[in-house]
Write a structure and sequence with these properties.
Elements: H1 3-42
Length: 53
């Protein structure tokens, strides 16, 4: 195994996987915040909650 291949397998790939996992978790979190806001607005039939708040 060359040095470049070893670096890719043991350093780059795990770091890349960790970054992807973190970005996926961030995306899931932001999506959940958005869905929570949608549920709040749908639960307010009188419109007391303004969309810009």
């Amino acid at each position: 195994m060359t040095l470049g291949a070893a670096y890719g397998k043991y350093v780059y790939e795990p770091a890349d996987a960790a970054v992807r996992k973190g970005l996926r978790a961030l995306g899931d979190y932001l999506n959940e915040l958005g869905m929570q806001r949608v549920r709040e607005l749908e639960a307010d039939p009188e419109g007391f909650i303004q969309a810009g708040d």
